[in-house]
Amino acid sequence: MVKSSVLGYPRIGADREWKKALEAFWSGKLEEAEFHNQLQEIRLNHLRKQQEQGIDFIPVNDFSYYDHILDTAAMFGIIPSRFPYEGGAVPLSVYYGVARGTKGAAASEMTKWFNTNYHYIVPELSGATPVLTENKPLAAYREAKEKLGIEGKPVIVGPLTFLKLSKGYSTSETDAWLEKLLPLYVQILQELAEEGVQWVQMDEPILVTKLTEADVQRLNTIYETFAVAVPNLNIMLQTYFESVENYSDIVKLPVKGIGLDFVHGFSGNMQSIKKLGFPKDKVLGAGVIDGRGIWKASLRTKLELLKELTDLVAAEHLIVQSSCSLLHVPVTVERETKLQSELKDSLAFADEKLQELVLLTKAISSADTEILNQLEAYDQAIQALQQSAERNRSEVQNAVATISSQEPLRSRPFTERYAAQQAKWQLPLFPTTTIGSFPQSAEVRKARQLWRKGEWNNEKYADFIREQIDIWIKIQEEIGIDVLVHGEFERTDMVEFFGEKLAGFAFTQNGWVQSYGSRCVKPPVIYGDVAFSGEMTVEETKYAQSRTKNPVKGMLTGPITIMNWSFVREDIPREQIAYQLAYALRQEVEALEQAGIGMIQVDEPAVCEGLPLKEEEQADYLAWAVKAFRIATCTVQDTTQIHTHMCYCEFHDMIDSIEAMDADVISIETSRSHGELIHSFELNTYKLGIGLGVYDIHSPRIPSAEEMTAMIERALRVLDPKLFWINPDCGLKTRGLDETVASLRNMVQATKAARAKHEATV
Question: Cys-Cys link to 144, which of 150, 524, 606, 631 (CB 3.0-4.6 A)?
Fold first, then answer.
């Protein structure tokens, strides 16, 4: 009989109660014992939901106090030596220190989880001696069984994925590290088997990326070791986010089941199964329900896919499951009371996806007419949205078709623009600036809430925003920053703000997802054709510029970032969505320029996040991502300086595309991985303006001027001093006032020291 399964459930709770508990604990408002109690209740509630829906294989150990990769590192005692850890179960003070930093130690690097908007803490293996500090999967299994009677499916990050995502060791040390880790994994699995666990989900998403021959051999070593050590434990080797590479090698591994993504990896995985078959002695975990998207599945289409799979795999060897963990979607549509019915009826969040899984499992197991009728009725909502006026704006479609058929170019090359801009702006060596946002205090958040509730009218709210701008313009001038920003106090989120002002977007009330740690975002929903509806940022930027003689940057979010940080429609290619956004943003760029704003920053921190995992698809994505940016920015005058901001990426792999964006200045988030990026510049030349983040804004610690000076000097070894800017890593919205001012003072002090050292030689 076909069974249902989920690969993971959102941690944050329908009311973000997980986030609130973490932040209360961090601020000292919640004692540790009560903190543990609250998180346990949240965790059990998530298990109850899956139990009540009728999910057959319910994941345990998918819950985390911060991040699942950090959990794995902590379970093995892999803690950087700069933190005061002496062995045993890792204390919360150390655990959160690694994630967030402390006054005496910088946080570990954080980077994106494959091609999603979730970010994990990168394990640092250098100098570590791994030991099993506690069997977290076993504890999670026991809790579910004792408290709720659930026979849970423990989830574990697989050894190869854990190693490949870690840093602090050389390629030549990989096998040595595997030898250290394998006995610990074996101990975990043996203890689970002794406890009576039936199935373990071993997550190996690294298998959807290109593997070396050595990696394939390591994979064989890992799972042959497990097969000998725990012959009676059923291991589901789970992949997701794309089709697997090395399919023929993977299906030979001695595991009981293999989980494949039939949403984002549909074409490749289906082709492999049809061509090479699927082992008769293995269970197929068919990921047919999208764990990353928010749209209802076409259940009739999914049923046909499952029927096709049952021609290749015995029904009793089929598990219907989500394509990946539901970590990447909001909790429930049920509480969205303000969406128009046409849209709401087309949405499926985590809880609704549980229902889809159960309904599909019943449908593939039975030819009951009533169930088939339910599938037919379910699909009607999707068809209604497709026929709506929102998805059929002919004026937008025609304009975008015309613009995207042309090559978007600035009127003159960078070297000529640079000379014109220098003549206009007369900036000093190593200009200082910030990325855009300043601290959103409780007062700012309260004011916005009062305005949204209607307790403040538009005029009162606008006066408040102008007061905040005045305060921070003066602070920036007093600190000595060269190029100012207005602070973005009117913005809740860098994507949501623009979505609220563009046609084709909708907004949920509770559609929160975890980005990193307790940082939750509420992505807009792009459900129709995107259209410019009027000026979005001109009023505040123009006001800020009127309050200072320094240049003030206009601040926009770029088309690729808006797209990648939104839930997007699935009926047209993402490329077309990007061009629609670019066309709308071009109109805002032109409005800022006409208002006298001569520096405009179009941020693209999420370009890397949309990069396809398959190498053969990356060049095409980057080509249209660059084109979208240039569509948005190419019509300005030569003296108008276009800035952009990006988060850390494999710079050497993208340098041609980044240069092709043709931004006059790019700032890059680098402080947690500064050395790696500097090494990229040792291998590649970058000929446009650039600022490498000189301190980490994700941590509350205040870096010293000397620390930032060292970063500046290292960068100047490989970058042209005439083109070098100095700035923080990212926006400062989440930081406090005192730490922000202190850090920026140190940044300016470090800049002055660098100028004194280098001005005579430049």
Answer: 150
Task: Determine whether 48 is exposed, middle or buried from the number of CB atoms within 10 Å of its CB (0-12, 13-18, 19+).
Answer: middle
In the chain, what is the straight-line distance between the N-terminal and C-terminal CA atoms, in Å?
A: 74
CA angle 464, 468, 474 (to 5 degrees): 145
Q: Active site includes 698?
A: yes
Q: Are 34 and 94 within one domain?
A: no
pLDDT for 705: 94
Residues 441 and 539 in one domain: yes
Whether the per-residue pLDDT at 214 is higher than 60: the answer is yes
CATH number at residue 551: 3.20.20.210
Find, among 197, 179, 222, the residue nearest to 137 by Cα: 197
For tokens 């973490």, the residue is 22
The whole-number average pLDDT for the span 290-311 is 95
User: Hey, how many other C-beta atoms are within 10 angstroms of the C-beta on 649?
Assistant: 23
pTM given for the model:
0.90
Enter the tokens of residue 311: 């021609």
Ramachandran bin of 345, using left for φ above 0, alpha for ψ from -120 to 50, beta for the remaining angles: alpha
Model confidence at 223, pLDDT cuts 50, 70, 90, reads: very high
User: Among 35-49, 181-195, 215-229, 649-663, which stretch is predicted with the lowest mean pLDDT?
Assistant: 649-663
Q: Is residue 289 part of a domain?
A: yes
Tally the domains of the chain.
3
Whether residues 526 and 568 share a domain: the answer is yes
Task: Report the b/e string of 437-475 with b at 16+ CB within 10 A.
Answer: bbbbeeebeebbeebeeeebeeeebbebbbebbeebbeb
* For residue 541, pLDDT beyond 70: yes
pLDDT of residue 715: 87
**Mean of per-residue pLDDT scores for the chain:** 94
Query: Has residue 651 got a pLDDT over 70?
Result: no
Residue type, 45: N
Per-residue burial over 207-222, b = 16 or more CB atoms within 10 Å of its CB, e = otherwise: bbbebeeebbebbebb
Closest by alpha carbon to 40, among 132, 121, 131, 146? 146
Helix (H, G, I), strand (E, B) or coil at 582: helix
User: Residues 634-645: pLDDT tens digits?
Assistant: 999 999 999 999
Assess whether 76 and 45 both reside in one domain.
no
Query: Catalytic residue among 119, 645, 674, 698, which?
Result: 698
Tokens representing 164? Answer: 């490949």
